[in-house]
Fold these 2 entries.
Entry 1:
Amino acid sequence: MFLLRDQICLWWGVRFPPDHLEALVAVVDEGTFAAAATALGITQSAVSQRIKALESRAGQVLLVRSAPAQPTRAGAELVRIGRQLLLLDEEAAAAVTGAASAAVLTVEVNADSLATWFADVLAAVAAWRGPTLRLEVADQATSADMLRAGSVMAAVTADPVAVQGCSVTPLGTMRYVPVATPDLLADHRAGRSARWSQMPVLRFDDVDDLQAQVLRAHGVPGHHAVPTHHVPSSEAFAHAVRAGLGWGVLPEAQLGTALDDGSLVRLPGAGPVDVSLFWQRWRIRSTPLDRLTDLVTDAARVLRRPR
């Protein structure tokens, strides 16, 4: 830290030294006290003392000593404040010294966005001098929780309701198309429809509900009633669909020419699944965060426009 090293952060009338908040952020980011000590260049004992001092000032436990360590509800609020102090501190240092900002921008983005339109954001950030990205991958349906927990300062999310302390900007709609290989569909044809309860399906992870929406529309209660393969990678998921492992809903951007050349076919009676995306970010003035916001909203122009 630079200009704020000797300053005091006030939270509900309680004073917290910024270097103690920095230790809390480091433990949450690195997962353990030992790893946090290495990242900060101090001893593990010093990290432990700073966390204990924070908890003593707060009058409550701020960290669950698990593997990895997790903030409590109160701890998450202090993590968020700690990240904001670190970001502003780096910007203050850059403004005073004329050096490039060393700010770390923590961002959550869903895997399908990261594999498609968000790649343009990465290409643009590559030309930056100074700020770095720390990306977290989570489902768009739960990413707002990471903002609430103070884990990230911005997120691509499906939640249109602004998290406290954040602003929200509509990005557009990602359209997903239910598809399968011709051979897989032929094996599970039922007249003009398909045997939905028997045809193998893919699922990204336990949070992924996109295929389940299609199943429910065809009278199947969910993944538990169907042979299901779990493939927790956007690129591998698309490859598995093309390989015939099961059917799945793919983003339009990942289909390429597959529908035109016949290597994949739309599933009969299954319409597209549209997911509206939003950009939520801390409501603070920050040049790197403002620049990143501009890049994200510009890259998202390839999405379908919000209705």
Entry 2:
Amino acid sequence: MTDPILVGLDGSPPSRRAVRWAAAEAALRGSPLRILTAFVSPIQLYSVIPRSQLPDLAVLQHDARDRLTEQADAVRAEFPDVSVHADLVEQEPAKALVEGSAEASLTVVGQRGRGALAGMLLGSVSDRVATYASGTVVVVPDEPAAGGPVVVGTDGSAASQRAVAVAFEEADRRRTELVAVRAWLASGLDGPNRVALVLDVDEMAEQERRLLEESLAEGRSKHPDVPVRPVLGYGSPVAQLGEQAEGARLLVVGSRGRGGFTGMLLGSTSRSLLYRARCPVAVVRP
């Protein structure tokens, strides 16, 4: 049996959009969909408040079940071929999703949920799931879906090579263009060795271009029908990928790149893009 796509639902608009995105992805893949709502007992949330003033647990469960049933029914109506399973668990949401990701082909969360502060672009649950979940995690913003290309960042790291493979699969599945971005910087270009380095910039750029093409070779051979547009950009990876991802239908990044510290689960580039991207972001592990 195919592993399901797992999506978290807390009733917030971003989480409902995440459910809709996950359902469409399940239809594309022919995968079952598991919608998970997790909540914490009021006693755990408000340990310093007298029991008489705590929200009623039965009411919370009833409301959560209603939201879950409503979303599951909406998915079944829009995507009748998708097998939908809805689960309500009493557990901390991030922990429930991280544990559930071990048995999922993909884990999907909204960019921020009901508990996020106003103006916060990435909620704590989304951040923790993107950091600790098994496999690929997609963070869906509270933005209308765009119909542009799939965009992927590549820097030669193991995680980015896996991200390129996933991006080719997603572009092929969606029958759309793949934009592959490699960002580079010539360190010291503005320092005391500026003159010597300037003489080598063209050669350095050509080397970066060759590395970009090499990173795409295997994907091109496996997915010959996917149109590919390589982009070599001078500047920070966050700026270059953010620019190319405007209007994209999906941005794919490795969990951490060449600059990540040993043991780091989510690199600074990936985390920054989760905060700023206006399209769904897939974080891929090696």
